[in-house]
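okkk here we go again. third time trying to get the adenosine-5'-diphosphate bound version out, last two times i messed up the smiles copy paste (missing a bracket lol). double checked this time i swear
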Amino acid sequence: MVLDANGRTYAQTISTGESPPHTLFEGIAADPGPGPGITKKKISKDRIYLLLSTRAGRDNRYVIQAALDVSREAGIVRRYRFMAEGILLFGILISAAAGMVLARRAMRPLAHITAAIQRIRATHMTERVNSDQWPRELTALAMAFDDMLDRLQDSFSRLSHYSADLAHELRTPISNLIGEAEVMLSKPRTPLQYQQNIESSLEEFTRLGHMIHSLLFLAKAESTDIKVKPELLDAEVQARAVIDYFVELFQENDISLTIRGNAALYADSSLFRQALSNVLSNALRYTTAGGSVDISIHGDKQKNAIFVVSDSGIGIHPDDIPNIFNRFFRAESARTFDATGSGLGLAIVKSIVDLHGGTVDIQSVLSHGTTVTLVFPHPA
Ligand SMILES: Nc1ncnc2c1ncn2[C@@H]1O[C@H](COP(=O)(O)OP(=O)(O)O)[C@@H](O)[C@H]1O
Ligand SMILES: [Mg+2]
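finally!!
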């Protein structure tokens, strides 16, 4: 439709099909600017027109108005949008559900681990999470976890053996003391008998006292209450101080004792003497009359002080060597050979050497003799 300057209809195309209502350009055609302005107008739910209204001709005298029925195209677009939104929503729901299933499946091993962990008690330490059943990403975790359980189980069983051994070691001497006292009191005794009884009790009390002292030392060493202050010492001087204490005992038992060599030793003097004294007392205790004990001292390339104590004693069975440093462990042969002894001596040697960052090693041939090697390191 073309309108002239006065707004009257100047020309009009003959409408084909359904003609647009007369009111179509209302509010649009009144005075359009010089450029073309396209407007979309909705008449009813499914009648939509694109309207163009522009000025043309000389001095912009005429207004050209054109209407295009886009109802069908709009319908197609609407249907497509509806479909696309539906598909999108469906996709979101499906992927959320799949995500949930996958997450749940991925978390299942963790639920398993959690259940296994909850079953673990001090009395139920055999539980394992079993790494071969896990997805590859989790096997390292499961393996580390099982390793940790192995170590814990080991510590727990050692601790419970330790308590059992401790109770046993204390019970025997105490029941002996009680038994002896009861026998003494069962009827009147001479003063000499009382004296002998008190003397033998005192020996047992002293032994118990030593044992408690040793246990306290080990407990302290383990909780690192003991701070080692290594100082530069003369190894031979230190060793001779220990030997002086033993010389008479060796002579009484007809065992020869020799010492040779020297080295610079970095250690806490009293701890070192305690360690060497425990090793020497074993050499003395487990060597028969006529035997020999030799101490040799030397320094190695790294300036570590090395003490080698060899005896010609009863030796240790190869099966017993791995247990030799355990608290209360005494080889069967040692028990029959000498009933006294608590089985704590070498545990203390080991903890003293550990406190110094050194090592202790035992080589032995049953019925031939034993060699203990102590290494006290040079501070780097
Ligand atoms: N020099 C040695 N010769 C033979 N056996 C030894 C020697 N030193 C240690 N042992 C063995 O190691 C065990 C533990 O030694 P230790 O801890 O000192 O305990 P104890 O001397 O009280 O028995 C001994 O019971 C013994 O079986
Ligand atoms: Mg001993």
